[in-house]
Specification:
The chain has helices at 16-26, 96-104, 141-147, 207-213; strands spanning 8-10, 32-35, 54-57, 61-67, 85-93, 110-113, 117-119, 124-125, 150-154, 166-167, 180-184, 188-193, 196-203, 218-220. With 222 residues, it is of the alpha/beta class. The relative contact order is 0.17.
């Protein structure tokens, strides 16, 4: 019998910044990338100059740098989440319609989005929970989900009630169908595709413990 290898790479679940650092490290050099509102915006703080990543914001900017702090803050220079950002050499600005043409035209290599649910088939639900008192806020998520070559999701694996956000089928209104290729969570990284869901690595728990939390068949990365 062969030795069963462990895919656990951390003794504890990852925090938001640790997860953002992991996503940043996984982005291929030279990529054009959009970072969604919320947790994904942290990724910009961990991209290196050597990666030569060009960040796009849907409100009309290419060449966004890390979040602005102190004297760097310019009230007119914000990302789509209204967070003050810096600009890198060669940054450019353009009309909102041109920005969406970039998103819809397949010019983005990766977009990183938050999610309420991701299905085993890579379906994405991130704009509305269906709750009567919820305010739907799709923004450009549908355009990003269908226009980017790869869609990475950043989210906690479980809801506040302890229910898995990675599900067999989404019960919330969909943003995109079969679009998600990777799911980064505080407890594990999942790869989604036509062959099912593979657990690439786990944080603070074993593969078996992840399988107990997620209500769908999982495969362990080799």
């Amino acid at each position: 019998m062969g030795t069963q290898t462990s895919i656990q790479t951390s003794e504890k679940p990852l925090g938001r910044d640790e997860l953002a650092q992991l996503v940043a490290r996984d982005i291929a050099p030279g990529s054009f990338v959009n970072l969604g509102i919320g947790q994904p915006t942290l990724v910009s703080n961990y991209l290196t100059e050597e990666q030569n990543i060009t960040l796009h914001t849907e409100n009309g900017m290419l060449g966004m740098g890390p979040a602005a702090e102190g004297d760097e803050i310019d009230g007119d220079l914000i990302n789509a989440g209204k967070i003050p950002v810096t600009e890198l050499p060669g940054a450019s600005y353009f009309h909102h319609a041109d920005s969406f043409a970039i998103m819809r035209g397949g010019h983005l290599d990766i977009c990183v989005l938050g999610a309420f649910q991701v299905s085993a088939a890579g379906d994405l639900a991130n704009w509305h929970t269906g709750a009567p008192d919820a305010i739907p806020a799709v923004g450009g998520a549908m355009d990003l989900a269908t226009g980017a070559k790869d869609v990475f999701v950043m989210m906690t694996l479980l809801t506040r009630e302890g229910v898995s956000k990675l599900v067999e089928q989404c019960t919330y209104p969909l943003t995109g169908v079969g679009c998600v290729t990777r799911v980064y969570t505080d407890k594990a990284v999942f790869l989604t595709g036509p062959d099912g869901v593979t657990v690439r690595e786990t944080f603070g728990c074993t593969f078996e413990e992840i399988q107990e939390l997620v209500p769908l068949p999982l495969k362990k990365a080799e």
